[in-house]
Known about the structure:
This protein is an all-alpha fold. It has helices spanning 3-41, 44-64, 69-85, 90-115, 124-141, 147-166, 172-192, 201-227. The longest helix has 39 residues, at 3-41. The two termini are 27 Å apart.
Amino acid sequence: MTATAARLGSTGAGGRAERLARPVLLAFLLVAAADLAGLLAGAEAVHLVAKPLLMPLLAGYAALRGAPRLLVAALLFGWGGDVFLLADNDLAFLVGMGSFAVGHVCYLTLFGRGEGRGRAPAPLVTGAGYAVVLVVFLVLIWPDLPADLRIPLTGYSLLLTAMAWRAGVFGPYAAAGGALFLLSDALIATGIAEWPQAPAPDFWVMLTYIAAQALLTLGVLTKHRTKHKPGV
């Protein structure tokens, strides 16, 4: 096979993947809408079916768009966390939190590589702001957390906050995604601490979480495709 033919074949495969990515993205959006509507309507069965489908669909879309493997891995570890958190017991919660933590390590590794490829480092002033917010939140919520969850939640919160800060390396979409991920998990923590909740608290948790993962994916894909354009 000539080099020209090989390039044409690669382009054709890429075009097919792009075409397949669109219905996968549409499926993700439809499942997300169904999940959120189910939570508003109090239809728990809809949530139980829809939630485990979200991250595999988003990961599939990212893979079809040529995303870095670390992004796909982060989304799939998020799926693991989603599944375990459906069970209502402390062990499943800890395992699910651990799965999310591995996903954050994947994100952090990806963002670190982004800094090493000519992208501006995450601003220190933003990191300082995140640190202040984290410390204030932990001081306020600590007395109301179950004793056996205080240390695991603190460690996870440190990792999540670092991810949210470093997400800015991949631009404003990823930065917004990191911030929303932090907000989503803060809402979960306030529920565990039995703080007063807004109406339909699970809806707000899932809305911010879905938006977070989608924006992180969009941010990484946007920067990744820009870097790999011909001549860039």
